User: Which sequence fits this backbone?
């Protein structure tokens, strides 16, 4: 995390004041852009099937991916064929849109799309041009599209918006980029269909439930796990992950934080010798090719409250995505 990013989660100081003029400019440009789409001065495109956006109003990992996976599985259980589109941050493909397959690497598609594909097995399309990704999905038999991020991509019409909020970090210092972490002001939450906190005590939230450890090298359940090792993560809120490891009885010898979506190399782990290494599933998809037998990842699953499911069911019925819920 850079010096500027660290300042976002402290009380506003001199750096925040110096960056405020840029934040005002950012607000002006983003507000005008949103207004132009609202007034149809700029034209949005409409997908051939309903689109559900899972995003946030702040920069950094807020826990969208676990909810995307839960939502996709939930819709699949209702008999719908689901596709997921993603920007594929951190990936570099020779051509876009990119259909993610079992052979697609995180270097090509980014970590989250590969993780989603492995978890769900559904159609996953990656590309910076979401309209092109959705156009490509017309070749597939699908009923609904989930957009992993894209709340601020007003060019893409959407049927439902779900905004994920990190219950611990919330909105940082409450300022817009670059003085703060916000992409839009908190007033934007009033227009969102469903605001869901990641953790915390809010009625509309989801909690993360840990599953048994798996071995990074082959994704199989770990028969036995060493009780101490190093925690390595490249996620938005590493502290939450480290606490979950300690709750699993792991004695952490050290903790190492990399920027979100960091592309790991084998030499990043050279200081650990033969010690055990613990990471998230999002990290693990980037490390299996060079992982040692005593490297483990901790899968987590989103568990929404009854209030979230009730609100979601109502929205799905109102939008005609599901009937009879």
Assistant:
């Amino acid at each position: 995390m850079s010096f500027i990013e660290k300042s976002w989660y402290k009380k506003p100081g001199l750096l925040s004041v110096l960056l405020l003029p840029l934040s005002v400019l950012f607000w002006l440009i983003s507000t005008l852009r949103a207004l132009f789409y609202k007034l149809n001065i700029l034209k949005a495109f409409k997908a051939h099937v309903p689109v559900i956006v899972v995003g946030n109003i702040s920069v950094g990992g807020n826990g969208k991916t676990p909810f995307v996976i839960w939502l996709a599985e939930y819709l699949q259980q209702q008999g719908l064929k689901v596709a997921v589109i993603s920007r594929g941050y951190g990936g570099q493909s020779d051509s876009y849109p990119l259909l993610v397959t079992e052979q697609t690497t995180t270097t090509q598609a980014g970590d989250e799309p590969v993780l989603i594909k492995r978890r769900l097995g559904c159609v996953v399309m990656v590309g910076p041009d979401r309209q092109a990704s959705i156009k490509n999905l017309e070749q597939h038999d699908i009923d609904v599209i989930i957009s992993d991020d894209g709340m601020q991509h007003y060019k893409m019409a959407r049927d439902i918006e779900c905004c994920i909020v990190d219950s611990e970090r919330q909105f940082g210092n409450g300022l817009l980029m670059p003085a703060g972490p916000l992409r839009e002001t908190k007033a934007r939450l009033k227009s969102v269909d469903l605001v869901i906190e990641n953790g915390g005590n809010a009625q509309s939230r989801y909690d993360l439930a840990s599953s048994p450890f798996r071995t990074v090298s082959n994704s199989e359940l770990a028969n036995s796990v060493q009780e101490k090792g190093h925690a390595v993560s490249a996620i938005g809120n590493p502290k939450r992950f480290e606490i979950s490891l300690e709750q699993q009885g792991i004695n952490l010898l050290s903790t190492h934080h990399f920027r979100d979506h960091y592309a790991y190399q084998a030499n990043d782990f050279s200081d650990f010798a033969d010690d055990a290494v613990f990471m998230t599933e999002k990290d693990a998809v980037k490390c299996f090719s060079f992982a040692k037998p005593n490297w483990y990842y901790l899968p987590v699953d989103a568990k929404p409250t009854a209030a979230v499911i009730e609100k979601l069911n109502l929205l799905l019925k109102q939008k005609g995505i599901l009937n009879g819920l």
In short: The chain has two domains: 26-206+314-318, 212-298. The chain has a mean pLDDT of 94. The two ends are 43 Å apart (CA to CA).
